[in-house]
Amino acid sequence: MLRKARIGDIKQIQSLINSFAKKDLMLARSLNELYENIRDFFVYEKKNKVVGCSALHISWEDLAEIKSLAVDKQYHNQGVGMALVNGCIQEARRLGAKRIFVLTYAADFFKKAGFKKISHHKLPHKIWAECINCPKFPDCQEVALMKKL
User: How far apart are CA 26 and CA 19, in angstroms?
Assistant: First the structure.
């Protein structure tokens, strides 16, 4: 079941995200950062366990970003990731965003959801604030993709 995150979900969200971060597949998130941004997060729950998460972050007047998409490995290829992405897209539309983007190593997954590859230079400089803290900066191989809403 897809739903908005609750405070009690934060430690499970952090565990999911940081399991991928340890493999250099996404940025790690601190508990503090997750608590401060809980309103951005969706979770996918099965049997009272958070098996996936994603966040929708508003970046600018008409631009939103999907961040921290993580799905427990045993739930891959079961529609959990796409449900999380679609939840973010619906909320972005509801809030009035006209475009939604993602920085990812899983470009093919997002292409299935209608995202198209773009140049990193088409994104506002403001979004790179997190990148400065990444150990891969400035040699990151993440792909930028965008979807018009």
Answer: 9
